[in-house]
Design brief:
about 270 residues; about 0% strand; mainly alpha; MetI-like fold
């Protein structure tokens, strides 16, 4: 009797999972299908699934709008801001975790809670005075401002979960605090570091607000380049969907390849002891 009761519940759970997955994947599927359609096919409900695919939208994205340049710009800024955030964020997270520097942790948390647009005007004024608008320096620093708190608050519980006895043993063997950090703590913190890096990279890759104000022709990123498909009288839906696929695909592949590390990194601080 109990087994018979479990079966309907199991089927209901599976049905709900399917419904949720379909609801989340449908917009992504529609985006991919639309990227292979003409403007007329996209606007026609009859051509939702029955249509002759075309690669013209992707040809326009790379030939007419030079998206390879924007991909390179986004990659340089995302990697640069992520690396700089790691250099500053890992020691900060370790300090908060080991020495209970709660005020420092609270300050970093406030920087994450405050909307990014709050920093936009001061950043613009500062970089204008320094003649750094439309430079990779200004873009990397502005993206780091929001990516850094991600890294700190992901790594704090991870460092707290590492037994302090490992570091004490290294100290007994003659290591300094810095050497114990680099030789013991960081090597066993790989999943957490990968998780934090991915979050920081994805934020930078998808960032629109800072790029809209601080970038120009030299440092224009992918989210800003999408504007090229919008005009006063018409929206080039085919090109827009192809550009959206180009933006989304690298991040999606990165997440799929590193999902194991993401899960381990996010759950590292859930259980202690």
């Amino acid at each position: 009797m109990a087994g018979q009761m479990k079966d309907p519940v199991k089927y209901l759970q599976r049905l709900l999972i399917v419904v949720v997955v379909v609801a989340f994947l449908f917009p992504f599927l529609w985006m991919i299908l639309a990227s292979f359609k003409t403007q007329q096919q996209i606007m026609s409900p009859q051509n939702m699934f029955a249509f002759t695919p075309t690669f013209q939208n992707y040809k326009d994205v790379f030939a007419q709008y030079d998206f390879l340049k924007f991909i390179l710009n986004s990659f340089i800024i995302a990697v640069g801001s992520t690396l700089l955030s790691l250099v500053l964020g890992l020691p900060a997270a370790y300090s908060v975790a080991r020495y209970h520097q709660n005020k420092l942790g609270l300050t970093i948390l406030v920087a994450r809670i405050v909307p990014g647009i709050t920093f936009l005007i001061p950043w613009y004024i500062l970089f204008t005075k320094l003649h750094l608008v439309d430079s990779f320096t200004s873009m990397i620093l502005s993206h780091m401002l929001v990516g850094l708190p991600y890294i700190v608050w992901i790594m704090v519980p991870y460092f707290e979960n590492i037994p302090i006895e490992l570091e004490e043993s290294a100290r007994v063997d003659g290591c300094t605090i810095q050497e114990a950090f680099f030789r013991i703590v960081l090597p066993i913190s790989g999943p957490g570091i990968i998780t934090a890096s991915i979050f920081s990279f994805v934020f930078s890759w998808n960032n629109f607000m800072f790029s809209l104000v601080l970038s120009g022709e030299k440092t224009k990123t992918l989210p800003i380049a999408v504007y090229s498909f919008l005009s006063y009288s018409e929206i080039n839906w085919g090109g827009l969907m192809a550009a959206a696929v180009v933006i989304t695909l690298p991040v999606l592949i990165l997440a799929l390849l590193s999902q194991k590390y993401i899960i381990n990194g996010l759950t590292a601080g859930a259980v202690k002891g």
